[in-house]
Amino acid sequence: MSARVAIVGRPNVGKSTLFNRLAGRRLAIVDDLPGVTRDRRETDGKLGPLRFTVIDTAGLEDLRDESLESRMRVQTEQAVDDADAVLMVIDGRVGVTPMDRHFADWLRRQTRPVVLVVNKCEGRAGASAAGEAYALGLGDPVAVSAEHGEGMLELYEALAPLLGEGALAPDEEEPALEGDDRPDQPISMAFIGRPNVGKSTLANRLIGSDRMLTGPEAGITRDAISVDWEYRGRRLKLVDTAGLRRRANVFEKLEKLATDDTDRAMRFAQVVVLVLDATQLFEKQDLTIARRVIDEGRALVIAISKWDLVEDRQAALQGFRDRLETSLQQVKGILMVPVSGETGDGVPRLMDAVFRTFEAWNRRVPTHSLNRWLKAMSERHPPPMVQGRRLRLRYLTQTKVRPPTFQLFLSRPDSLPDDYSRYIVNGLREDFAIPSVPIRLILRKADNPFADKGKKDD
């Protein structure tokens, strides 16, 4: 099992910047506004030869009530309990504050080893704060600049003895291949939707713990938070995302960053679960999100959340289905599952829908089967005449999966009507059991086999 390193500290000391530095890429949202991070976020981290799971946490607040900040503190405390080592970060430009002293006292009472990190020490900026930090009683402070990558060697020297030899990488690591589709790879599943539709509550129900912050406040989730877990022996990576509002209504920088993070999670997901609120109608923004998922070629499943609050369930479900069929005609058979994150009702059916949709998204059809099928389809409904000559459909082959993509070679691709393309796509979906996922049909001009021969004869 990978060693685990938690990054803690009061708000706005640069924890997320250090998290991104150790992760080797920008994952957590970073902004000058205090309190940006709310959920704890985990990813693979490295520091020299050290390999570990690095955990970003919310800024520590001295609160014990029912507020959002208090619930954030509980998440941070859980991260410390699960960690093998803790990096406590203070701001080298500000120096040691009373809140830093308060939480240093709390960390000394824990059983986890702590490295005191004085951040924002570009050049000599934090020299005095580093000297002052000895008073916190957490050992020798390490001066770093997470933003500029300074002090990483000193941080490695402080952290390596705490993690032990088990955290050291082997001499040669096998590089990951782009597009590696090995069967042991987890299925990446992203939850997206409007704010406050119950995404985080449903995610917590699926993984069986209060991993995501939840509450009555809209827009609690900001970062896209990923969690590795297993369901019925299959590995998955669940990504909970910030709520998406209409872009015209997004003005604040922080919300724009959160929206970009959600878009990125959607593009890299394999299956996207669009979460709707069962107590509201299928809104225009829901349809906009669904179309974006389809345009990206992702596999789409719809979860109707808060189903426990619906009285006339049959009428409500029929209303959602009717709206879906009329508004998303480009993809037939999208699976729609009523669920409740509060009670767990419908969760097994939702996961069945995810697996079925993922399999359809990976469907591969042999070329010989496609061309027998194409001949039968063109005989049943011949392509139209163009300038007195009938279009000839010569050859059909599948060029990729995820989503299923086919190339149709014909005499005049620019003259094939859209309705005939839809006829081909709908036939593929029906006859080869490819429901509920986007199908891409690319038209290509077939070469004239007699063209070169005629030139030679001349």
From TrEMBL:
Any GO BP: ribosome biogenesis
Residues of the signal peptide: none
GO molecular function: GTP binding
Domain EngA-type G, first and last residues per copy: 3-167, 187-362
Gene3D superfamilies to which the protein is assigned, alphabetical: 3.30.300.20, P-loop containing nucleotide triphosphate hydrolases (3.40.50.300)
Keywords: GTP-binding, Nucleotide-binding, Repeat, Ribosome biogenesis
Region described as Disordered: spans on this chain: 171-190
Top-rank taxon, per record: Bacteria
Residues involved in GTP 1 binding: 9-16, 56-60, 119-122
Residues given in the record as GTP 2 binding sites: 193-200, 240-244, 305-308
Pfam families: KH_dom-like, MMR_HSR1
Oligomer status and interactors: Associates with the 50S ribosomal subunit.
Role summary: GTPase that plays an essential role in the late steps of ribosome biogenesis.
Family: Belongs to the TRAFAC class TrmE-Era-EngA-EngB-Septin-like GTPase superfamily. EngA (Der) GTPase family.
Name this protein carries in UniProt: GTPase Der
Lineage summary: Bacteria, Pseudomonadati, Pseudomonadota, Alphaproteobacteria, Rhodospirillales
Encoding gene (name): der
